[in-house]
Amino acid sequence: MRIIFRFGGIAMLVAAIVILAVLPFATSFVEQWSRRDVELRSRLVFNSVRDQVSGLLAQNDAQRVTGLFERIASDERVLAIGYCDGQNLRFPSANMPKTFSCEEAARSDAESFSTVRNQDHNILVSSFPLNAGGRAGHLVVLHDLSYADQRGGEARNYLFLALAGVAFGAAALAAMIAALIMRRWLASIRQALDSARAGSANPPAEENIIPLGQEIRDVLQELEASRRTIDAAHTDWSPDTLRAALANELSGSEVIVVSNREPYIHNRTDGGDISLQIPASGLVSALEPVVRACGGTWVAHGSGTADRDTVDANDRVPVPPSNPSYTLRRVWLSEEEQDGYYYGAANEGLWPLCHIAFVRPIFREPDWQLYRSVNEKFADAIVAEAKREDPIILVQDYHFALLPRMIRDRLPRATIVTFWHIPWPNAETFGICPWREEIIDGLLGSSILGFHTQAHCNNFMDAVDSYVESRIDREKDSVTFGGEETLIRPYPISIEWPPTAMEGQKPVEECRRIVRERLGLPQDMRIGVGIERFDYTKGILDRMQAIDALIGEHPEWRGNFTFVQVAAPTRSKLANYRLLQEEAEALAREINEKHGGDGYEPIRLLIRHHEPDEVFELFRAADLCIVSSLHDGMNLVAKEFVAARDDEQGVLILSAFAGASRELSEALIVNPYNAHAMGEAINRSLTMPEPEQRERMRLMRDQVKERNVYRWAGQMLLAASRLRKQQRIRRLIAKGRRPAPADA
């Protein structure tokens, strides 16, 4: 008991000192928080009435402006509101203090906040620049800070009580733990002395315990080193950073990547020669440094017309051809397997199911049988390539939903990281899939299962909860199924930084001149771009309808704005994709006939594949880019547009239903199903001041630079490394608990 009081007294004294030291900082934090809250309210007031006030001022409608200001000032949190036209205060609300002066409030070309004293309380004066009819002025909003001061005082009191409660509770707990540890330590010493006195020929298995404890400490040190590696590389991910992290974390590990698309394709030319094609793929850009650094294996479908001619007897080819550093293992599929597995189950079934784009999924049992058999074929290839019993296997995308479980059954000690590159729908939608339990079971063979966003992770766990018996840990974001735990994690994919396509790009003004000349456009024509595959999930028809709405409601853009839609044909075997292209061509003709004339076409539809350097040239020439996905896992076009704009100009119009909208919040976020709202967003983009464009683009570029594709790959692999070390600790602890074998 004396030990408890002694440690408790010391801990309480330390807690009191900590509280006294922290409280001034907490008080300052509360005051700053209260003021920021009031500033936020001012911004909300301004943003909600900016367009309306600007329009009324341009019309010089004093009566409606005064009425609007009085309604705003009736809010109990708003003291007064008015408009500063230079040094003149116009339309002040009734409660405007007589001492208020526009000279002090509206001195800046940007928003500003200042505090003034009025009688016995403080007033926050918020000033926002507002252009009305071409004349610059400021909207001023005044807030009485007395309620904020009162709330700040209450928050400080509650904070003090909370800190005191937590600190004293922690002190009591620390005292009890210290006493318990001391008692156990004394008991172990007494036990050792008793054993020594008894002269036992077989002392407690100390020889086994000490080495085991040392091994656990070694693994814990590796875990700490892993954490430092992740922290050190957090803001500067590059191929070199990725290679260095892998050398530290996965030295000696075997890495196998599996994907449907291969990183190198050999095709036979018309002249009979063999040409090498490197597909433009963010996935290849991200994972190639991983496989190269580890000297691993990439397993993929051999789709090139000369692929069989370039492999050895075991269907392997060393790549890259110029400097081989890893092995590409090709898997061969018949045309029937390709039709059923890829076009059928994957792209007519899972693709529309997960994208919820109002295209009915088609579920055919023969397709599913082929999907299962192709997954089995890939599992056999992976096992044949594995040189160790515990490789790290990276499974990519919805083509291989069953593969993780098949690998787990064959290689139970493998670390399997699966990434699902498309959205995961809500549980009710996923429930229509006739193979839902088998898909969930297959994916839960993974050690780590990654999605683009936390929302997709949540949807997956909801589906697991609805359709299979499992234990879900929402705090840890994990699912335990069949006695094995799968971690569910968001890993938002991105692009390489800097993009390879930026190499050799001309200055922005030169790109604009070249693109306008190529398309036969006047040099003062404003340009918008959209660059997609012909896929019904991308909202191509919706953005065309937005152009129709823009010109119909803002006819000043007729003849002054052209939208260039680049669309590459894809999956032409499927009827929905063919029909989409036909419908897009018909809609473009209709809108051009409606709003065009004298050589002017508001929509230029370019139906062909564009190389990355051509795409980036278009991005640099454009005033705006529209990404109007109806549903998308991420959509890297949005990030590529941002990366292309090193001049920090241009506006990104981004669908709220694309995963990229969770990261690029400075874009103009739109509902692609609302053509009118998208048209207004285009108009706002075309009239947005350059300083605002620069500020938005700078923030988005910083985001894409920091969270690039190498970070995406690195975070998954370092998570796999940490998981492997944690599993080693668990195995060591389990080994230490097993009874020692009896003496012979």
Automatic annotation (TrEMBL):
<keyword id="KW-0472">Membrane</keyword>
<dbReference type="GO" id="GO:0005992">
    <property type="term" value="P:trehalose biosynthetic process"/>
</dbReference>
<dbReference type="Pfam" id="PF00982">
    <property type="entry name" value="Glyco_transf_20"/>
</dbReference>
<feature type="transmembrane region" description="Helical">
    <location>
        <begin position="158"/>
        <end position="181"/>
    </location>
</feature>
<protein>
    <submittedName>
        <fullName>Trehalose-6-phosphate synthase</fullName>
    </submittedName>
</protein>
<dbReference type="GO" id="GO:0003825">
    <property type="term" value="F:alpha,alpha-trehalose-phosphate synthase (UDP-forming) activity"/>
</dbReference>
<dbReference type="InterPro" id="IPR001830">
    <property type="entry name" value="Glyco_trans_20"/>
</dbReference>
<comment type="similarity">
    <text>Belongs to the glycosyltransferase 20 family.</text>
</comment>
<keyword id="KW-0812">Transmembrane</keyword>
<keyword id="KW-1133">Transmembrane helix</keyword>
<feature type="transmembrane region" description="Helical">
    <location>
        <begin position="7"/>
        <end position="26"/>
    </location>
</feature>
